[in-house]
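Example (one chain per record):
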Amino acid sequence: MLVKWSNIPVLMLLSDPDDESRNPKVYFVRLFLQIIGGKLYSVYSNDLDLFPNNMEFTEMETKSRKRSFNEQRHDPSSTKYRRTYDSLCLSIQSSCIFLDFNQTYDNVCFKCTETTDQYRPGMPYKLLHYPMRSSVEIIFSIIDLDFLQEIHLGLNSCTGQHYYGLINIIVNKVPILIDYAGLRHDMAFREESFSIPKHLCVHGENKVKVQLSNNSPGIFWLSDARITATRFSLNTKYGLGNCFKSNGHKKTTMAVLSKLLLHMLLFLLSFCIILPVVVFYSWNKPFSMVFTLFHGDNSIKTWADTLNNQRLAKAKQYLATINETFLPGYIGEPELAVVIVTVNRTNQDYDKSGYILQTVAATHKMFVQDKIFPNKIMMICNVDVFPQNYTEVVKLKSSIPVIQRYGLSSLPITFDFKRRVLYGTKIYPNSYYKETVDYMYCLETAHSLRPKYVLMIEDDSMPRSNALEIIHHKLQYLKRKSTSTLHGEFVYIKLFYPPKWQGYGFELSRVSEIICIGCIGGSTLVAINLMTCKSRSNFIRFAYFLYGAWLFVLVVLTIGRQNVLEFFSSSKHFYTLRPSPGCCTPAMLYSGKHIPQVINFLETHYKDLHTDLALHTFIKQTGIPAYQIEPNLFHHIGMYTSLSSKTHKSAEEFIFDDSQ
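Predicted structure:
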């Protein structure tokens, strides 16, 4: 039989493989014909078997097979095969890819193979005869792996009768079949199907490699290939079949509905269990979404008054046990000066509130228990016009140093002489003027002791028990920051910000928090779904993500940001520093370096701005940073303000747990 090789006719002579000894005449005739043909073509007398009778086609049979073969390949209406040239792609629309190895594809790569139609005239095929070198690599793309149930590789191939070829099939560099010899060895082309494990496939590009095995004694003939995919039915398409066992393809409508109901039941159970628990937790938490649904204004005020009375009783009990020996002294210049600014309130309800006693007791307890600032001093700054009438402070003089704006002081404090008139004035147009000057006086006299930091506390603010520990932790953070940038210094750190303004709103930072919480919730439910149902459907994952995001956002909105922040108070590492807002001044930590500038600025603007707004204007004009710490390190207990005797603040702000 004549075949074309490099456009030169070459006679292919084959010896009988059953004859163990080669015929020297045949061998030399074959070699001679190859040399004169100008091309040494390797024909393996022991690798290729004699042409069997069932492979000899008449001319009519050959034409008929070629016509049928081409019709199947090129007929666009044919459902048996589907061909693609530019990109081999399995998707939910296509279920089969046919590859004729006599065509050129960008996604099919042949290595060390040869082509001939010797045993099948007009229908060439590939020869794989170099072990571990001869191979065919098919690259195909899967649009959505979740929609495919099974993937098969079909090979139209054959091997010899005795010295048959062995192949390895490798999927994405993982062997799935080693030394495979085929079902029959009668030299008849037949298609065999091999299952491709779905777990080895990936979304996007996949590679299947058919390689002649290293142990192959003969060659392997390969004509064409098919990659077929079985799609999921409707219920498995949406992920139900991945989560629950089914009985093959005989899934009834009832089974589909039951699995759909299981997913819905999971959503409903989480909704009906989690939200009631959240409501039960939040019903008595101020600033939660449901707090005012369970409590009226009168009950809230009564509750706040009751808590205040309990704190006052504890404060009196504690102060009765202290004396001057309990207060640590300082040597030289203290590292920290703690100043409580106080003035006698004229409101009748204030007479029973005892704010100063609660503040002094909590601050003193924090002060003596602290070991982080060993060299520190605590004082009360009494700015009342008639200090002798402020009996609560007068009683504390024996235990705690007191400095007085309008009287004698227990400490050797000084201030700028040019402000003596300002500090000696007793009558002001309004109480806000006096408030700012009082604040200046206490801050300047405390700074005269040369501390590194000054902690200014108003007389209606109670610190947490670990406040100094957290302050020290944040100061160390700022020191580390100052070594790498120029922004390590600061004017002050605001240690309290009104809870009513700490809730969720439309500020960029608050919206970002909501988005992050939603992403955490969605990712959590997707992870739970993967661990339990192991669904690989993107539709199901997206549904779980949306539900988780919605559920987590709903939970935190119900609890309220103020109460969410309380979870962060469990460790000093969870506290954060934010740029300081304008309001307010119940508790402020000042850097001693910038106190003179602050006092000079307040002296100039005390008539124009309130104290907190003047401080905020100062940092905006100078560009020196100031921070606010979250969560709050202080609780505000002053429901009745010293600036007004007619009204009280919202009682909801003054309901808190003072045991922290």
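Caption: The chain has 17 helices and 24 strands.
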